Amino acid sequence: MARVRTLQGRDDIVAMIVGLLAAPGALVTLTGFPGVGMTRLALECAARLLQPEAIRIVDGRQTAHLAPALRDLEESWGFFEVAHVSGDADLIVVDDYDRVTEAAQAIEAVRARLPRLRFLLTSTRPQHLPGEVVVRVPALPLPAPDASLSALAVEPAVLLFTEVARATGTTAVLDGEVLRDIARIVALVGGLPRAITCVATRSATYSPAMVIELLEHRPEVVLRADDDEVDHDLFAALERLLSGLTGDQRDLLDRLVVVDGPMPIETVRTLAGSGDVFTDLCALVDLHLVEPLHHRDVSHFMLPALVRHRLAYGTAARPLGTAAFPSSHETLTDREIEVLDLLSAGNSNREISTALGIHVKTVMHHTSNIYRKLAVRGRTGAVAWKLSVHEEVRLVSRAARGPALSDARPTASAPLPSPGLARPVVEDEGARRR
User: What is the dihedral sign for C-alpha 266, 272, 275, 278?
Assistant: First the structure.
């Protein structure tokens, strides 16, 4: 895979992390969705903070237990003695921290003995360690749909793609109107640096226009990691996250996939039905399976592009942005189409029966027929089908009770931040506990 040396669009967050690590004894955890670039970011921050001899790196993918790894550092380099007596405390970077066994106990033991030693962790979620400061690492900003060519040329996500693509030796044109194709590519993968890098490395073989075609029809061709980088495969990483969810958390995530775009908390609660939606939502946000978008006193929530794709279509080999189900309503009766429309609007079976003047059991009969004819499993699959073949369909929290999501979003005078413009969020574990 072609290598890229420039860290695009990360100057502000690097400066912030370096500032957090400036204090002796600091413990900073970077969290983010798989492929957001936490490892690269951590190494860049460490390099800007200290000289190489003051930094030690532990790879969680290759370390079963952290305590022996820390002991090895001490025996090999006399690291802890240096950290104990030096004027500036040294730094240990633990990459993929959450894949290491009994890591918390090992770190707490070392910090008790060497309070000036600093730690920088990368993890899928906050670890809730004493004194931990969490930095949520966002994806790269997504270019505005109506951006000029000159503006697209300096977008960090576009620059990342073109830099990696040129390193492959491609003869494809990568400027002018082609920048709009590249902007479409980075939007399809949600601004994830790893995904952008992955598809850009195929540029010697595929033009940007062909990459779009593949992403929309055979994403596995351009998004699967090479054999020598299987540990960095986005699909495998996402499967690990999903496999660790509780039943309630997975159920909530499956219900949220029917919404194409940001949703207010009222819509989340409606889709969740019964259950402890706030606890489950917090867990999903911690794992970056749901991203919060905060604007003044309003918070919206949305699923990253790859999460929506995985949940809606069931396998990584399904198209991005195209239907994985039958392409028309031809097999549905007029009544079944009416039921599907109301189902997609977030209505319960009882609300559908009231709207159509039919018995609840009749509604259940129609929904069973819909699921069978569309070859989907349940409400989520049926609504995903409708969204995939009718792009203008948008879910409302309850069709007859509330405004559509497009109406619920902030107005132009108070715009909602784009998902790609999300700023890094810093959480202090001490303050969080208080």
Answer: negative
pLDDT digits (tens, 9 = 90+) for 275-322: 678 999 999 999 999 999 988 888 899 999 888 878 876 543 444 444
Question: Which of 322-331's residues contact partners 24+ apart within 8 Å by CB, and which partners?
Answer: 322/216, 322/217, 322/388, 323/385, 323/388, 323/389, 324/385, 324/388, 325/374, 325/375, 325/376, 325/381, 325/384, 325/385, 325/388, 325/389, 326/373, 326/374, 326/375, 326/385, 327/389, 328/389, 331/373, 331/374
Q: Letter for the amino acid at 298?
A: V
Report the alpha-carbon distance of residue 20 to residue 53 in Å, rounded.
Answer: 20
Angle (nearest 5°) at CA 65 between 62 and 66: 95
Question: Would you tell me the crossing angle of helices 178-188 and 156-167 to the nearest 10 degrees?
Answer: 110
Half-sphere exposure at residue 10, Cβ-oriented, CA atoms within 13 angstroms: 26
CA-based nearest residue to 56, from 87, 28, 92: 92
- What is the full DSSP assignment across 377-389? -HHHHHHHHHHHH
198-214 pLDDT per residue, tens:
999 999 999 999 989 88
**Residue 217 contacts by C-beta under 8 Å, 6 or more apart in sequence?**
319, 322
Burial of 131-149, coded b for 16+ CB within 10 Å and e otherwise, reads ebbbbbbbbbbbbeeebee
Euclidean distance between CA atoms 4 and 167, whole angstroms: 8
